[in-house]
């Protein structure tokens, strides 16, 4: 079973995405901040996909992706940004930091699943 | 702060001086009329009026100026008191916004939990009725699809939370501005040299994250709401 780490400071987003992705057959790990996610990754968690919010307090999703890319074994792991932010320059920042894709909230479940299947193909 | 008393002011200060001076001039005129020949009376009367007007011109403008300054001070005090209430008003708005966020978050979590339980229940029923699955396959598939759609739609709570938080930040910004205006009005010798509200509006605009927020801001300022530079809602790099 593919494992997905979701990071968001909103409890409802975490539950919503977990509900949609778990129903589609993915194992879900959750973190409510970039710092917590980074700790989980440094402690050995190796998800097949990371989905992160952009604004979550001190550490942004872009910061998290930049740091996560330096963790052993995560260099090629797909990392998606899911955010309400619509400005193009923020999107470019995320891309530069190593994000795989950008989704604007609210994300329709069908669109989310389509992207997840695209970046996380079944082997 | 010194309070201005209009009645006391009018009769104790320059206006009274003006009247006293006019009375003195008038008395002088009466005395002169008594001791000089009648032919000089007309000329003296004119001189008397001229002197009175001159004194009034000298003293009345000063009196009006002080009266108007005092009226301005009263108005400033009234505005300062109104602004203090304005801050209470925005504080109430923020607190009520926080309540809305808390209520919708709690409701959304309850809904998701409920949906997951219903979903798990459907899965159990499907497992128990494996013999009849073929008959109900389409219906079960439709229920499952609906369940995922409902779970996804709960994201509305995060969107509304962010919008309410943005409104709260804006009201804090206006409150701080009003507090400075309040202090300046309470003490008219104090400078009111802070960033203008127009500049703060620009700061607020820069803080938005949602296209919808930027659009409503532009609309409020009477600007075009054409969305510019917004990429696809889903983009893979």
UniProtKB/TrEMBL annotation, chain A:
Keywords assigned by UniProt, alphabetized: Phosphoprotein
Top-rank taxon, per record: Bacteria
GO biological process: phosphorelay signal transduction system
Residues the record lists as 4-aspartylphosphate modifications: 53
Domain Response regulatory stretches: 3-120
Protein's UniProt keywords contain Cell inner membrane: no
Family annotation (InterPro entries): Bact_response_regulator (IPR050595), CheY-like_superfamily (IPR011006), Sig_transdc_resp-reg_receiver (IPR001789)
Transmembrane intervals: none
Protein name from the UniProt record: Two-component chemotaxis response transcriptional regulator cheY
Species for this entry: Magnetospirillum molischianum DSM 120
Native organism taxonomy: Bacteria, Pseudomonadati, Pseudomonadota, Alphaproteobacteria, Rhodospirillales
Automatic annotation (TrEMBL), chain B:
Key words, A-Z: Membrane, Transmembrane, Transmembrane helix
Alphabetized Gene3D superfamilies for the sequence: Helix hairpin bin
TM segment ranges: 39-60
Protein name: Methyl-accepting chemotaxis protein
Organism: Magnetospirillum molischianum DSM 120
């Amino acid at each position: 079973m593919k494992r997905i780490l979701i990071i968001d400071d909103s409890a409802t987003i975490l539950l919503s995405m977990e509900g949609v992705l778990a129903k589609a057959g993915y194992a879900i790990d959750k973190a409510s901040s970039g710092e917590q996610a980074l700790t989980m990754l440094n402690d050995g968690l190796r998800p097949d996909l990371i989905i992160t919010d952009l604004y979550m307090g001190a550490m942004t999703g872009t910061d998290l992706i930049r740091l996560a890319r330096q963790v052993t074994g995560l260099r090629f792991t797909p990392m998606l940004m899911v955010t309400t932010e619509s400005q193009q320059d923020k999107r470019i920042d995320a891309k530069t930091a190593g994000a795989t894709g950008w989704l604007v909230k609210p994300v329709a479940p069908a669109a989310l699943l389509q992207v997840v299947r695209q970046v996380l193909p079944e082997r | 702060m010194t309070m201005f008393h209009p009645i006391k002011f009018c009769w104790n200060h320059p206006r009274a001086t003006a009247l006293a001076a006019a009375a003195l001039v008038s008395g002088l005129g009466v005395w002169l009329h008594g001791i000089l020949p009648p032919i000089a009376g007309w000329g003296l009367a004119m001189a008397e009026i001229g002197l009175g007007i001159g004194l009034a011109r000298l003293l009345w403008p000063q009196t009006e100026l002080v009266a108007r300054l005092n009226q301005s001070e009263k108005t400033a005090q009234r505005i300062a008191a109104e602004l203090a209430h304005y801050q209470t008003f925005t504080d109430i708005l923020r607190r009520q916004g926080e309540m809305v966020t808390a209520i919708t978050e709690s409701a959304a979590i309850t809904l998701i939990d409920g949906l997951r339980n219903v979903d798990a229940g459907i899965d159990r029923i499907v497992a128990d009725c494996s013999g009849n699955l073929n008959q109900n396959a389409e219906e079960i598939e439709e229920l499952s699809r609906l369940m995922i759609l409902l779970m996804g739609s709960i994201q509305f709570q995060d969107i509304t939370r962010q919008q309410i938080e943005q409104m709260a930040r804006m009201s804090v910004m206006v409150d701080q501005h009003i507090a400075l205006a309040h202090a300046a009005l309470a003490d008219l010798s104090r400078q009111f040299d802070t960033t203008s509200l127009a500049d703060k509006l620009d700061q607020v605009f820069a803080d938005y994250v949602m296209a919808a927020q930027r659009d409503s801001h532009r609309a409020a300022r009477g600007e075009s709401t054409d969305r510019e530079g917004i990429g696809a809602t889903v983009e893979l790099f």
